[in-house]
Amino acid sequence: MTEPLAPGATIGILGGGQLGRMLSVAAARLGFTTHIYEPGAEPPAGQVAHRVTTAPYEDVQALAGFAAAVDVVTYEFENIPTAALDAIEAVVPIRPNRRTLAVSQDRLTEKAFISELGLKTAPFAAVDDAVDLAEAMEEIGLPAILKTRRFGYDGKGQARIDRPEDAPAALAAMAGAPAIYEGFVAFSQEISVIAARGVSGEVACYDPGANVHRDGILRTTTVPAPLSTAQRTDAVLLAGRILNALDYVGVMGVELFVTPGGLLVNEIAPRVHNSGHWTQNGCVIDQFEQHIRAVAGWPLGDGTRHSDVEMQNLIGADMDKVPALARDPAVALHLYGKAETRAGRKMGHANRRLGPASA
Amino acid sequence: MTEPLAPGATIGILGGGQLGRMLSVAAARLGFTTHIYEPGAEPPAGQVAHRVTTAPYEDVQALAGFAAAVDVVTYEFENIPTAALDAIEAVVPIRPNRRTLAVSQDRLTEKAFISELGLKTAPFAAVDDAVDLAEAMEEIGLPAILKTRRFGYDGKGQARIDRPEDAPAALAAMAGAPAIYEGFVAFSQEISVIAARGVSGEVACYDPGANVHRDGILRTTTVPAPLSTAQRTDAVLLAGRILNALDYVGVMGVELFVTPGGLLVNEIAPRVHNSGHWTQNGCVIDQFEQHIRAVAGWPLGDGTRHSDVEMQNLIGADMDKVPALARDPAVALHLYGKAETRAGRKMGHANRRLGPASA
């Protein structure tokens, strides 16, 4: 598929959560129909999609049927089983590509890829057992975080090690899964670059946003992040190098640590990203439409920010704030249509326009 | 229904065209699900709605089932048969209200209502036959337009009378339907005020936009319209009076003529309006969300414009411009997902951000 998709074509999306939902709306805005593939019943994205296939990622027949009904497949999360990807790619292109998924599905592979590019990361080591762990503690030092190499998100599958005595419990928390030991990095802030790359190789980045996490979950992103011009330029160039090296097509979230020694890559996410939700109310083309443009082979939007924005996640009981936020003239609410409010569950977000774009 | 609807509630929408489609997306953004009622197959709004009922407006049973499945009903067009409204209102509230529909479904009733409010309109007279027509020509003069009192839109059901000889053909074009004779008004521009009123009576208006029509169809709306401060204030106050007088809940499009003698009301539309599409890229809360907020009993957004915008309709073959528009960094495309491009058919629109909001 090298020609741009014409309006009326169908975009297949793996995953029916809030990211799939907002991708679906963006696709509709460009005249595409969407088809969601999601194992769970009543997915949030299904409320705004043309079609929904409800089936597990192990159902190769359902996957083949889904692939045959769409013109391109993209995804809202990176932990898609390889067999599912094989079944789809036999029929229709997957964007972003398989290589990116292979790199980003494994924290160790990801860190190694980034290091080989010449970019900085936190110090890391593979940990499969207690011997590896002892060596890593010796080499890299404490404090550190032990993380499963695969299937971790929002702070799950992670254990902090402050003192040597914490090591056995941390290893036990991995439940036998291969892990990665990451040394702590002294950073002044965490920022994200939401970067996009089109089929013809052009790259467009949104301005970096400053992220605040609590309990391992993103709480706010504020744009612009308080950075020097040099830091801002570095962040964007660095993100562009990652996308180019992967021959990437789509939007990627690149999380960076700002340290006295420069920018460190914390993590990459080969998809639209929570820290890019501000673009919905800060730019002419938001990250969701940017991603759809890329996977559809369209030219990218330019990503210029017209407004300063603070994005606040609404997590669990934060939904109680909705009536007050609805009365706030500077706030745009984005709710995800999830039936049940649960502690720690992302229910929506609120973009507060702070004013016209500052320098 | 006086309590605001909680996220998760369902908004019923009569009509599955582009307005229903954009209302549906706005409702989803606030966490509502939507249910479209539309006689035609494969409606554009159905691609982004949770449920669709396909049935004619004469199917009282289907209407009752639809009404029972939703928490409030709104609509994207005003020519809904009275019996359909009766069937729905027996079960669930309709917003905007029945009175507004009665007023706006008939051009004569509408003009009379506006005149009684003390607001100016073009000179008009009821025309049921050749005698009425001769009297109207005598009284109001030429040139003039003869329009059917009901079911006209986008220049359909209208005939221009420049000379007395045109009268018989104009009358014949009405096909026996009751008509209204409207004298020409010398105006310097046509503007629209997109006004909203909430359940507790608060009114919020967007800045007036300047409209350009061709062949009876809106082509562009540019905001801000070139008006004096006094004219702008007049326009907004006048629109507010109309909404208050109707105890209106929702968004209304108020088309005005700017004349040397002041503002004249051309037409009101009890729904979101093509001339308000610019708000999608000019305001934090657009007209579609504003309408949903009103009919859901939520507080209104404030409607402040953060950017100057030119909205351009994409009609029929204008779809050929889509690739170029997609490359334009200042343009946001909004396509309607219509399967077939036809001459005169509204296929989408393009909002061009002109810059930060000017005074």
TrEMBL record, chains A, B:
Known EC number: 6.3.4.18
Record bears the keyword ATP-binding: yes
ATP-binding recorded as keyword: yes
Where does the ATP-grasp domain start and stop, copy by copy?
111-296
One Pfam family of this chain:
PurK_C
Might you name a Gene Ontology BP term for this protein? 'de novo' IMP biosynthetic process
Keywords for the protein's UniProt record, in alphabetical order: ATP-binding, Ligase, Nucleotide-binding, Purine biosynthesis
Q: Which residues bind ATP?
A: 107, 147, 152-158, 182-185, 190, 213, 266-267
What InterPro entries is this protein classified in? ATP-grasp, ATP-grasp_carboxylate-amine, ATP_grasp_subdomain_1, PreATP-grasp_dom_sf, PurK, PurK_C, PurT/PurK_preATP-grasp, Rudment_hybrid_motif
Which pathway does it serve?
Purine metabolism; IMP biosynthesis via de novo pathway; 5-amino-1-(5-phospho-D-ribosyl)imidazole-4-carboxylate from 5-amino-1-(5-phospho-D-ribosyl)imidazole (N5-CAIR route): step 1/2
Subunit text: Homodimer.
Family in the record: Belongs to the PurK/PurT family.
Q: So what does this one do?
A: Catalyzes the ATP-dependent conversion of 5-aminoimidazole ribonucleotide (AIR) and HCO(3)(-) to N5-carboxyaminoimidazole ribonucleotide (N5-CAIR).
Instruction: State the name under which the record lists this protein.
Output: N5-carboxyaminoimidazole ribonucleotide synthase
